[in-house]
Amino acid sequence: MNGCVVGLAQVNMTVGALDENRESMLAAAHRASEAGVELLVFPELCLTGYPPEDLVLKRHFLEDAEHTLHAWVENLPPGLVVLAGTPVRGQGTEIHNAAAVIHRGAVHHLYHKILLPNYGVFDEKRLFTAGARPLCISVNGIRFAVHICEDSWDPDALPVHAFKHADIDAVINLSASPYYKGKKDERRRILGETAARLGVPLLYCNLVGGQDELVFDGASVVLGADGSIQGQARSFHEETLIVRIASRADVNRPALPDAMDHLEFTGAGAEPPLPGPAQAEAGIRLECTMHADAGEPEEDVYNALTLGLRDYVDKNRFAGVVVALSGGIDSALVAALAVDAIGCDRVTGVTMPTRYSSSGTHGDAHALAGNLGIPIHDIPIQDLYQSYLDTLTPLWPGREPDTTEENLQARIRGNIIMALSNKFGWLVLTTGNKSELATGYCTLYGDMAGGFAVIKDVPKTLVYALARWRNRKAGRDLIPADTITRAPSAELREDQKDEDSLPPYDMLDAILERYVEKDWGADRIAADGFDPEVVKRVIHLVDGNEYKRRQGPPGVKITPKAFGRDRRLPITNQYSERVKPPRPRVTPARAGGVQP
To answer: Own/partner pairs for 395-400, CB < 8 Å, 24+ apart?
Structure first.
């Protein structure tokens, strides 16, 4: 009986924090070794953090990364075989996204990622050179094909196809796959197809943690040869998933193809890798733990937002955060997320009412702060607002009030909250959601002023769902009930309601999903049951507000296509979708006749 104990270490790394990352990985390696792990797998580019973006174009950064790698390797437990992601220099100007194969204080091989993604948030073809040779490593007689993330995504491409007729026991995948709603199911489906295509289990190790707009959810998983889930790690937490894999020996095991690299390791304390084929196994058995997925769909989204916010605040070394509390649903959700992410002692609320602010919203802002246990400062801005009007109104005699006066209020608030940020080192959390940013229902240099837009990718309807879920989890109205049930309003003029300017949010969000995330055209959206005039208006709003979005702060990605890294459109853009004329009706030609 051959066997190997594999550890999938989903760790939270910080881009560029080479020494800190090295120490975290070293501690994880020693814990894994003490737990009996023989092969330890770390995620893609974990040493440098992912994505390092243009840092890898700096020669000195790559040199420092290589120095850090070798300093780390020298201190690893000697009997442990390790796979760890790191960027490496190749020939000439080539740079590779690599997996280092490590044993007994030395790097024995560098596998270069073969499939480089270049879609959505990924930009790897711009930075890296693709590898060409597949890799198999044997540990205690168990043969593992080695993949890095995208390598397992196409069952017909080289990284998978190369092993189709090779005698392997399992696939190991080092990954940095960012989260969005529904991504875990998509990921498991695709990986399951690869496992089934090869007829072997697939052991997938994913990164965890927040990095700017991206959140990595971990959720490392072990799939059986039929694609079924055999074990999985928790989502949004650091941990090592331990897998025991065993098989029966077959002395007639064939050698692997010459077109792939092969290294063999035999047990703790073994000498460096020996050439030659390993013994074959048949009848793979897996043993590992299984953590349940989130109970409700909102839970994963909420946890992703919390983790993304926490890591942005902590990794950028902010003392705390400040939130402008309007008494509305968006600022209430942001404040709750902030408290859950970094604790109530690091969150401050500010309310800045004018004569348009209702007693209901002002009371809800204070009730929310009390429920969350955060301080709240009342800074009325009516006098400041009137001073602006007194100064500016003579410049436009005879003109009626419009959005100019409304936006002045938002911009005064932006000035005040940024002053508090400067004075106390607090990160300003903006409170705009995806529906508002999509349609431009927000004020540039006003409520868009800030450092991190935690819910910028959360549609308004999902904002409500998350608030209700958080209250269910708390077992009480942590977010005041009136905040959730009250008709949404910016409260910048008398009796203002969001629906005065926008379609109802359930309709708006459905149209935005089709236009922004699915790239459907107007005709197709209208054919899905929406009023063509409403569709046209929404598209006009989205297209006309790219300049606003381009100037907004970063925020957590939780949908398949977020504004910013995912969706990149020109600001100066005069394209307008053409209305397509109806297709002419074609009648079949009669026998002997001419078809019209």
So the answer is: none
Instruction: Answer whether residue 156 shows pLDDT above 60.
Output: yes
Q: How far is CA 353 from CA 116, 119, 299, 327, 492, in A?
A: 51, 44, 33, 10, 10
Tell me the one-letter amino acid at 372: L
Catalytic residues: 44, 113, 149
Residues contacting 28, CB < 8 A, separation 6+: 9, 11, 40, 42, 240
Phi, psi of 37 (to 5 degrees): -70, 135
Domain boundaries, the chain: 2-288, 298-391+403-499+546-550
CATH 3.40.50.620 for domain 298-391+403-499+546-550, yes or no, is: yes
Whole-number Cα distances in Å, 21 to 25, 85, 86, 101? 6, 12, 11, 18
Q: 104, 89 in Cβ contact below 8 A?
A: no
The pLDDT tens digits for 108-154 are 999 999 999 988 888 898 999 999 999 999 998 899 999 999 999 99
pTM of the entire structure? 0.90
DSSP helix/strand/coil, 109: strand
Residues 170-187 pLDDT 10s: 999 999 999 999 999 999
